[in-house]
User: Fold these one by one.
Assistant:
Number 1:
Amino acid sequence: GLVNISWGWRLGFAVQCFPCVVIIGLTICVLPESPKYLIKRGNIEDARRALMLLGRGTAELEKVVDFEIRSAEEELAKLEQAGQGSFKDLFHGTVF
């Protein structure tokens, strides 16, 4: 077996890593950028295209895409309004 071979552990490691590399590679090549990221950057049309691609086959796709864009814009506005927090803020409040 591979127990007595000095490179045997490397072969086992490579065999386990191969599917991960394939999945990551396919994901990067096939999936579009995050619609929320695109909206945050002001690329509404690119976000719309990404949502249309992700929602292919959905009934009333235009309405769903419009809803998703509005929802993302509202969420991003709330996050911006809330401001930046710090790590220290996690330990303040009524819990501690």
Number 2:
Amino acid sequence: YVQHYGGELGKKTEEEAKVGRAVAKKRESRLNKSGPVDQSLADQFRTGRLFAKIASRPGQAGRVDGYILEGSELAFYQKKMQKKKGKGKE
């Protein structure tokens, strides 16, 4: 992400590395094209914990495929985990 977009997720950059005009222009166009990062996803990176869903096929020993949750899917699973936390206290 740092090399592709020129910034880190979850960290505030105080010093920017010196890059050429062409590289800066390319990074800016990529960032504008993809849009801003969702706030809930940035919060996950800041805390160092990402919610992900494992989507590997059965029988694939030693390999795990998956994706990072974001948007409505992330909100759904966060609500589900909050409910589960509440049940354990009773």
Number 3:
Amino acid sequence: MGQVISLPFKLASTTLTFYRGFFHYLLGQGRNSPYLPPSHPDSTVPAYLRPPATANTAAEKAAGVGDSCISSSSWTVPSFTKTPLFYQHTRLHLYSLASAFYLYHKPHYRKGSYKEDIVDNFANVAIPGTGLPLSLFVWNRPLAFGLVCTASPIVSAVAALHLWIKTRGKSSISEEYAIRLLAPDDWFSYWRLNCRIAGMHALLNDIPKGYDMENKWTFLEEGNKIGVPVSPYLNTPAIVVKHRNEEGGLGIYFYKNATDGGDWIIQERILNGDWVNKHLPSNAPLSTFRVITQSRGAIDVTKECKVEDVTALSCVFRAGRRNAPTDHDSILFDVDVKTGEVLGGTTNAHWYRLGLHECLPGRCPWRSSDHDVTHHPDGDIPVSGSVVPDIREMLHLVETSHQKLCPDVPLVGWDVVLSADEKLPVCLLEVNLSCNFFRGSFDRKVYLDFLEDMAVKMQGMRLVADKEGKKFK
């Protein structure tokens, strides 16, 4: 009974922390002072964003601090919301969320503005069960501000209640609400955190050269020049594609190759290698591995970046579905980066279901499974438990490629192919610089420590830009 009575007060306290922390970084002292961790003597972090002096060391140990830290399913860790890791994540989440409004009308490395980038990227994403593309709510600052201030607590409350029902009371509503609202560990929140860090970093550093790799043709061209094994492309100036039965000038298409100044990258189709094929159904698409790397060389782009400054954080095997054109429709199997063992699988497809009919009861799941898929559903093919061949070589390839191609970019998502081509058994398809983990696991402490160091540097640069009245172009 005591827990029921105290629940509204706990939820209200968490909600107040969210608003206070958000406005601290949006308009308050956090906006106009250096970003410094609580351990720094000059830190201005308010008490409600600091871990308690008597931090729960048992919870900290359970959370894996100093060992292999969790990156998702935080609710399974007892008293996680009392750990320093939780508070560190909270500060970074709120700081970057507030920073999105600073970035809103400023130039973006791949669009005219940050606003244009989020409108485009949110066009096919919806909060599960709503069917409404999030792009509808970010067309201007007031709308986006309203989304943050209203949807965040509402969605967090629904998520906490949903988990409590799903686990039959095993989860804590107040704990899950705090995690969802203050230190969210779902794929969407990590994706947006990475995007905001990338947008801020590129802006304040006058868009370093490494961001050019977002252009697929520049990536292939530069990779070829320096010996990075990128996916092969044809050097012919153009191709003509004809339908075999059309006539009268119909059914004929001309494509000018990027090698000759055109907009199209013309390649032969790449086929899955034997190891990949044995885990897929018939007529599955090219199925890649998404590997995320971070570069400490991006913290200070004026310094030389060494290979050891780059770390592979996570790896996910995207096992494509039968008859799907690409592996964007896939089962996401987590891969242990230390051993190469394929772990459980899941999806994030419920975030891409649009249309008001998705609001109907039972139509769209609120959340997907928590990595409990062991077999590919199209054919009941066993996947979990297999070992990715030469995982260390794959990770070393992306780490060295990050250092060679874009050491001045903080986080990079690599699409790695294990192909059937004996001459090029492993190649890099493309890179994503505003990347998401596709629900892969990673050492959260390593990741958050890196982002904290990035925030310290970027906030210092932002304060200098404010003082100088810098105009970004």
Number 4:
Amino acid sequence: PVVRSLCCCSLVGLVMIVNGFSSQQDICLRIRSKNKPTYTISSLNVYNPNTFGRKGISLPILDFSSESSDVKVVTPLPSSHLPEDLTSLNFYGMELSRPIHKMLIGELIDSSKIDMNILSSPLSGLASFGHIAIRNNNSLVGAIGCSGEILLRTLQQDVEDNSEIGEDSPIMVLYRGCYRFIVREVIKTIPYPVVIVDEIFDEENSNRSSNNITETLMSIDDDDDDQLQYYSDASPKELKERIMKTVRTYIDFKLDEVSREADNNAASTLLERSILENSGIVTSSPADRRSQIEESAAVFDVFSSSLIDFAITPREQNFAIAMIAAEIISIDEDLRRKILTMTDSVRRLRLICKTAEETVSMMRARKVATEIAALSEDEEEKDLKVGPPQLPPWASQISMGTRIEYYWNEEYGWSPAEVVEEPLKIMDELLITVRFDADGEIHRLPLNPDEKIRWRPAGFGE
């Protein structure tokens, strides 16, 4: 597992990879091992919310909600519901330079008596802090967050091996998201907040039975009911199956992307990479990105095969599937906070299913557009060939969920739509059922060689 791989690495041997797949990961350094991990379920030492409940836990708080824009840390997602070997996707890194933040981490580590010069025992809970995801007012009482367990702390110079170490040197902290909580009481605020928290669980039923936590959170997730209307008819079982299938498709697309990046890597000159670095744009190599997506694939494979072993009830399965999908598809920061504060597991499934399918649809559209552009370049070099018109090559990529644009008429122009059924092929014609974004109307339209000029992939005309 990645935990044991990291233990065998020196600090200098740790590789810091900036995951450039989404905005939230652009600002978060994840620390990975050079060796590709293998995953096995060695033991199911999983925290069972039906047996225990963390209540009255004292946590020091890292609250970045009121910080200036130069301090950005990714919101962690919980992993205490997972077997230890499946928690590596919930590793996060943050660089802390402010004295108050470094004081909190230092005192927390000192009080835990853990040697943070080596990777600590996972899920120990001895050096834990609270990360606030959302608060409704100036008070911390009622704030929602996720706890983090510190695994490793080091000075940035230890990793970068440059300049002298001083008191103002930033520290790098590797930590793991653990469990969700709500703040019940503030013990102290100086020099940093320390609070009493209770763990948050999803509701047993999705009808939002009235309770204090639900009342606190309902105002947070009521704003997207209209957006999720299309998914309201899908059963939880169907939503979970669609999410699992979409995540697998996402991983396949990402592996294909990094393979094509590696093939085109020779086109990126040293001068181009130097310009990017001098501009403050940190890039990772295709090999680094491949390593990350392969790790996600390995974790997801074991997760899929062992889900029933550690998530017994439908509520636990809903929670586990939504959280791992959110981590793999790299949802944005606002959505991370939203799903962290939700207590309706079915609504969370709908939101993640919508986001995952839209993400994969856009990836499919980009791939088709790239293939069209490449084909157009090739055709410019070929002599004109006489023969019957053919369907465009990208038509073979159209499937349910694909985003397209259809030229309706001069008044409406190019109208974006989504394919809602698998295309039906009759001879050299495709019958495609689409739902138009503008009015939600569903039409079955022909795509044939004579009408192909009215069709194009979504975003191709931008």
